[in-house]
Queue: 3 jobs
Job 1
Amino acid sequence: MVKKRLIPCLDVRDGRTVKGIQFEGLRDAGDPVALAERYAREGADELVFLDITATNQRRQPLTELVRNVARVLDIPFTVGGGINTVADVEALLLSGADKVSINSAALARPDFINELARRFGSQCVVVAVDVRLVGTEWQVMTRAGTTPTGRQAVAWCREAAERGAGELLLTSMSHDGTKSGFALELTRAVADAVSIPVIASGGAGQPADFTAVFEAGGADAALAASIFHFNETALPALKTYLHTAGVAVRL
């Protein structure tokens, strides 16, 4: 049985890990390298690092941070933020990243997904999809969640998978940081629409939320930030809880 993955997410701004609610009200959560080392030691399956201001500030990805993180990790990690070219991806992979996460660049030029999949392999390409509930429809957002695209969430996820994405990182901005649970119906709709792994993000608040997103939501992995950063839920205890609940996890 394929095991479900738990993935701490480190949103990085100015060299520090930060966390907010619905992408706003950011507060400091610590040094990203130290946090990465801690999470690897506690049993994280993977890590995700997102430079949350790189796109809007039109900056290059943080290759120096990637090198520093690679020195302390023995688990896979994904890096996103400000990635616009094949050269950006090559630099990050050569610096030690295992995967890259693309969002705004993929929406602006969907062929970018195809290019990266051909050049580096789909296993390296994670397409991040930030969505917000507008009325009764989930709409895709771009530029760190600040700009609506007019795209419907499930349709864009399906297109990204068909173009060669290896995974989808699906974030409900409506749930992000609220600790009210994941967007289960959305996650299930995407999981049913694609044949690649779906990482659910946004809304984790308690262990039962993870059980729900794996079982009812059909997610292959769950990403969380504040509950880990601020010691509200420890990774080892969460894995024990999931194992006891019958969810296949790596202990």
Note: The two ends are 14 Å apart (CA to CA).
Job 2
Amino acid sequence: MAAQINPSILSADFARLADEARAVRGADWLHVDVMDNHFVPNLTLGVPVVESLARATDIPLDCHLMIEAPDRWAPQYVEAGAGSVTFHVEAAAAPVRLAREIRAKGARASMALKPATPIEPYEDLLPELDMLLIMTVEPGFGGQAFLDIMLPKIRRTRELISKHGLELWLQVDGGVSDSTIEQCADAGADVFVAGSAVYGASDPAEAVRALRTRAEAATAKASWACDH
């Protein structure tokens, strides 16, 4: 299974977003963190910036909504040009209905779990999703240290995906770097959000390639991938 690398523009220069999008050529998706200063204690960007980014890059947009009332707002991000929209299950009033609406509008539907949120209560929702995001830091700020206590949760999630025979992407976000990406891949992740590890590098495009190489090497040896 091919690893996907999604650079996070949260670590980019917000005054040069179009240039920063071009700097990560070869990336699979551009990860866009939307924060509302309510669900998380930070405020970033919204629909108008996503619309502008969608016009400025050929890399598809992976919008991660760290916001209250995603049932109301998520569909607008599909309309703005996002190819994948992630809502937090902790904030969604009707996650199945929301996932179906996102899909009906033409985007991939993804659900995110904060570190303290277990995966097991949501097992029955997995067939409604195209991707599941396991947060490996507390959402709200970039540059945080990777929480290795999330690795067992990633493994359990991969086991549930395999149990149901789903083609569900498993994304990790938070502290992903050249020193942690192999652990995530070995545990079962196949989509990796990387912020400072990419945009803090002298050559962001090369950082994307290097992260992909590490993730693919770890995946090739992982028991979950061999069994797939």
Note: The first strand starts at residue 4 and ends at 7.
Job 3
Amino acid sequence: MKASFKKALLAVAVTSASLAAAAPSYAEITANASVTSNYIWRGLTQTTNDAAVQGGIDYANESGFYAGTWVSNVNYGADDVYSYEHDLYFGFSGESGDFSYDVGYLYYNYDDEANFDFAEVYGSVGYGALSATLSLLAHTEADEGEGRDYGFGQASYISVDYGIPVLNGAELGLHVGYHQGDFAEDFNGVPDGYADYGVSISKDGFSFAITGTDLDDAGADAYDNDSVKFAVSYGVDFEL
């Protein structure tokens, strides 16, 4: 999700003790926690290639409605004001046979000093192990620079993902995406739209990913977003 949104978009859930007590028997409240050697979002490091500790809570109803919250540490450089990312989202998903869908809203919250919170609306359709997702900028608190447009839909991310089982219960994931728009360029610090790609293998909560982008070499910096990256992570889910 930025977030590690559990379904490739990244999943989460807002709840409370009162909500848990009122939840019907067919609703589910779960939590998740993970550590990763590098928090990578849409091909770009969110921690200047350092480790991150992440976690969230999810609420899901058999009607297809879900909601959640998710948090991670972030670091965009020694002189920035960012220290955390806190996401809130809700949506509706379902499936029929081999077909699946997911639509929702995701809000990215950062330190108050950053003044760069933003939100996206997203939609995903899938057939079997193949899925395609489109995320559109919904709104942001960031101020537009001269000649920049941060209006609804003026930044977008489209991605295609494919996951297949391999030996001994492991899963191989393939990903390609494209991020573009004035807001995407300014938030990510890139000069233009860019493509990202990734290959991952996961089993029993462990995951190893190789990711990259088509960005040109910007010289030595703390991001190296033009380079191929490797990330190892471990996560657990549990019911509340």
Note: Confidence is low (pLDDT under 50) at residues 1-25.
